[in-house]
Design a protein that fits this description.
Blueprint: H1 2-13, H2 29-35, H3 38-45, E1 68-70, E2 81-85, H4 111-116, H5 120-136, E3 141-143, H6 166-181, E4 186-192, E5 205-207, H7 210-228, E6 232-235, E7 239-240, E8 243-244, H8 249-259, E9 265-267, H9 276-282, H10 292-303, H11 309-323, H12 340-354, E10 356-360, E11 372-376, H13 401-407, E12 411-412, H14 414-435, H15 453-462, E13 465-472, H16 482-486, H17 490-505, E14 509-516, E15 531-534, H18 542-551, E16 564-565, E17 609-611, H19 620-626, E18 631-633, E19 644-654, E20 657-666, E21 675-681, E22 693-699, E23 708-716, E24 722-724, E25 729-731, E26 735-742, E27 750-756
Parallel strand pairs: 2-3, 3-4, 4-6, 5-7, 5-17, 6-9, 11-12, 11-13, 13-14, 14-15
Antiparallel strand pairs: 1-2, 7-8, 10-15, 16-18, 19-20, 20-23, 21-22, 21-26, 24-25, 26-27
Helix pairs in contact: 2-11, 3-10, 5-6, 5-12, 6-7, 8-9, 12-18, 13-18, 15-17
The chain binds beta-D-glucopyranose (BGC).
Length: 757
């Protein structure tokens, strides 16, 4: 009844097109703003008002399975603009009513794997091909990339984000945005800001100092905005120091636009924000996907004056400035036929560079394809391409490791493969029954790990080496459980243990492949195996990528984008992060429901509020400074099948900063790429500074054995500044700075001193 009444009132208030209404053009936005009625303006601000959710996207308008729309106003020539999810590829429905075609999208590696490449050109190339699918499937804006910080390894959405470091994050996000937007489609950099846990994400309050906010949790967005000017930004669900991110004038107007010069439009996360007038006043133009109730609230706010015409028209102007940039407005006729085969090649190329070789004792890898390989672990036969939730992709296929190895003509132990194939069929039936009952954004049920005791012994006799894959999948709406996700299960431990004993007794090597979206504990088992390959969730070509690395066709060149600690309890954020012991899958976004803005912000620690007690000392800033012994693998770490040497570092003063030069030589026997990471250690000053901070990086080209190249990166003077809470300003201490170039954040081999007056 209410809905019918609202619809009637909108109709009554919407002037019919009498032929005189101005039609939107790039150069007549003020005229169109003036011609729109308050009802039409609210229609533009409030999104598609989804009433139901089909598990993929909220809307069937335009592109089925897209996340939402900016409503069109045909009377003024304003088309409906389609918004759909990312970031590991475009997320739309593969099927459509009365249409036998399928509309698959390429499943790219997760963002954490993209940043593990440390290769901005490659990430931009991935973005370019993702953006082409956005364009060719009729979508205008991709709701990606995600640029939140890996504050704690248990955050359920870390896989959608790049790193614990704001510089690496910001640069990666900018490369992705520039790649996607080169197609003439838009992006939405998300989730702005300080959104680092999923539990109670719609109501939790992130409590942190101004310095921590500025240096860690805004710096990433600042860099991305300045380097790429995304078309849009999506605000986060959480509160920041008691203020809702979506309603923060300081964040969206003073800082984002005033200080950083952002020129685009802002939207809420889906269902985010409480006070609609405050949202628009703050400089947030779109309430997504909105509802009839929110439409009415906004209209009433205009009528009773709590939202001024000036604020409203500023929002509408920004929305129209966005609309005129879109393919929809420009009349682009999409093909629905992006070149998926070409994009699959890009997917593999990017994944190949993101694999991180963590351990390789006695050159266990690469392996010869003539060796007989015993392939263990259920995940080897059911590879994980990406995470769950809105960051998932409806991809056409996922190459598992058995298929990847077979494609490269590896000699696999047939008995082990046959055992697993039959076991996985049985498990598929059980899993289907459970998954059928689970909500859309919950971890998919995985096959239960199996320990084929006799087969392990037998294959140790007949095979030449063993490969075991350990898998983890998780995603939006839920953080990871320490016991069931971060630590290996008893069965996984036993599997590794038995295989290692059986194969080592016969002097044969064991490799573990980690097919995971975030770290797992390694110290309790890694000494038992010879090699560990971290292949993340590498997208649809995963098995092919890992096979290429295992045989040495691809020399691994990925480096860690976040520190891996020896023990979860030693993480600087472990005491200030929720840990819920769930007995069933559940979406924890609404863990504590709130209906009004007067929520009990200060009641339950880590749920209603989370204190960022560690300040800026998070990730390697903490570990390298205060707890180097707690590092299992440092930030920036990664091995190769060859070795590299750095020499001749210099820092030459240039306009606005320094050109840091270093010569990299391949000192090993095979071709490969390395990463030059430039860190800066500040002199002692008023503020406590970390041991070092990343200020620049570059990936080398492929270097043949004996070949050298000179890498030059720019370190800006501005990047040396720290935020002083006492003066409320960025400050650079005078004194001698140490610039360090290394292969990871613990490498001290190349240093130069730089004086700053
Ligand atoms: C997620 C966003 C996503 C949106 C639309 C929200 O639940 O937090 O990342 O873009 O849904 O699907």
């Amino acid at each position: 009844m209410l809905i019918a009444l609202i619809a009637a009132s909108i109709l009554a208030a919407t002037p019919q097109n009498d032929g005189n209404a101005p039609q939107l053009r790039e150069d007549n936005i003020p005229e169109v703003v003036a011609a729109l009625t308050p009802e039409e303006k609210c229609t533009l601000i409030i999104g598609g008002r989804a009433k139901s959710f089909n598990g993929i996207g909220f809307t069937n308008t335009g592109v089925p399975g897209a996340a939402g729309v900016i409503n069109g106003i045909p009377r003024c020539g304003i088309p409906t603009i389609v918004l759909a999810d990312g970031p590991a590829g475009l997320r739309i429905s593969p099927t459509r009513e009365n249409d036998a075609n399928t509309y698959y999208c390429t499943g790219y590696p997760i963002a954490t794997m993209l940043s593990s490449t440390w290769n901005l050109d490659l990430v931009q190339e991935a973005g370019k091909s993702i953006g082409n699918e956005v364009l060719e499937y009729g979508v205008d804006i991709l709701l990606a990339p995600g640029a939140n910080i890996h504050r704690n390894p248990l955050c359920g959405r870390n896989f959608e984000y790049y790193s614990e470091d704001p510089y690496l994050t910001g640069m990666m996000a900018a490369a992705m945005i520039n790649g996607i937007e080169s197609n003439g489609v838009g992006t939405s950099l998300k989730h702005f800001a300080v959104n680092n846990q999923e539990l109670n994400r719609l109501a939790s309050n992130s409590v942190l100092s101004e310095r921590t906010l500025r240096e860690i949790y805004l710096r990433n967005f600042e860099i991305a905005v300045k380097e790429s000017q995304p078309w849009t930004i999506m605000t986060s669900y959480n509160f920041i120091n008691g203020e809702h991110a979506a309603e923060s004038y300081r964040l969206l107007t003073d800082i984002l636009r005033g200080e950083w010069g952002f020129e685009g439009a802002v939207m809420t996360d889906w269902g985010g924000g409480y006070d609609d007038a405050a949202i628009v006043r703050a400089g947030n133009e779109m309430i997504q996907p909105g509802s009839d109730e929110r439409y009415m609230k906004l209209l009433n706010a205009i009528k009773d004056g709590s939202l001024s015409m000036e604020d409203l028209d500023r929002a509408i102007t920004r929305i129209l400035e966005l609309v005129v940039r879109t393919p929809k407005f420009k009349g682009y006729v999409h093909s629905n036929k992006p070149d998926l085969q070409a994009h699959a090649k890009v997917c593999k190329k990017v994944a190949d560079e993101g694999v991180v070789l963590l351990k390789n004792n006695d050159a266990a890898l690469p392996m010869s394809r003539d060796q007989k390989i015993a392939l263990f672990g259920t995940t080897s036969y059911d590879f994980i391409a990406g995470g769950t939730g809105s960051g998932d992709v409806n991809r056409p296929y996922v190459v598992d490791l058995m298929s990847g190895l077979s494609n490269l003509k590896f000699n696999l132990d047939p008995e082990v493969c046959d055992f697993y194939k039959s076991y996985m069929e049985d498990e598929a039936y059980r899993r289907k029954r459970i998954d059928g009952k689970n909500p859309w954004n919950i971890d998919r049920e995985r096959a239960i790990e199996v320990i084929p005791v006799d087969l392990i012994e037998k294959s140790a006799g007949v095979s030449d080496a063993a490969v075991i894959t350990i898998g983890r999948v998780f995603g939006e709406g839920k953080d990871r459980n320490l016991h069931y996700s971060y630590l290996l299960s008893d069965r996984e431990q036993e599997l590794i243990d038995r295989i290692s004993k059986a194969f080592h007794a016969k002097k044969k090597k064991v490799t573990v492949v980690l097919n995971i979206g975030g770290y797992v504990e390694m110290c309790s088992w890694q000494d038992k195996v010879d090699a560990v390959l971290l292949c993340w969730q590498p997208g649809q070509e995963g098995g092919n990528t890992v096979a290429s690395v295992l045989c040495g066709e691809v020399n691994p060149s990925g480096h860690l984008p976040s520190t891996m600690s020896t023990k979860y309890e030693l993480e600087p954020t472990a005491n200030n992060f929720p840990q819920i012991y769930a007995d069933k899958p559940f979406n924890y976004s609404y863990y504590r429901q709130i209906k009004t803005k007067t929520l009990p912000l200060n009641t339950v620690k880590d749920i209603d509020y989370t204190i960022y007690e560690e300040g800026i000392f998070m990730g390697y800033r903490y570990f390298n400074t205060h707890a180097p012994k707690a590092i299992a693998y440092p930030f920036g770490y990664g091995l190769s099948y060859t070795t590299f040497a750095f020499k001749g570092m210099s820092a030459e003063p240039v306009e606005g900063g320094w050109n840091v030069k270093v010569t990299v030589t391949n000192t090993g026997k095979v071709a490969g790429k390395d990463v030059v990471q430039v860190y800066v250690k500040a002199p002692k000053g008023e503020l406590e500074k970390p041991e070092r901070e990343l200020k620049a990086f570059a990936k080398t080209p492929e270097l043949a054995p004996g070949q050298s190249c000179e890498v030059i990166v720019f370190v800006s003077k501005e990047s040396l500044a720290s935020f002083n809470d006492n003066t409320n300003a960025w400050e650079i201490d005078k004194g001698t700075y140490t610039f360090v170039a290394g292969q990871d954040s613990m490498d001290n081999s190349q240093k130069v001193k730089v004086k700053v007056d």
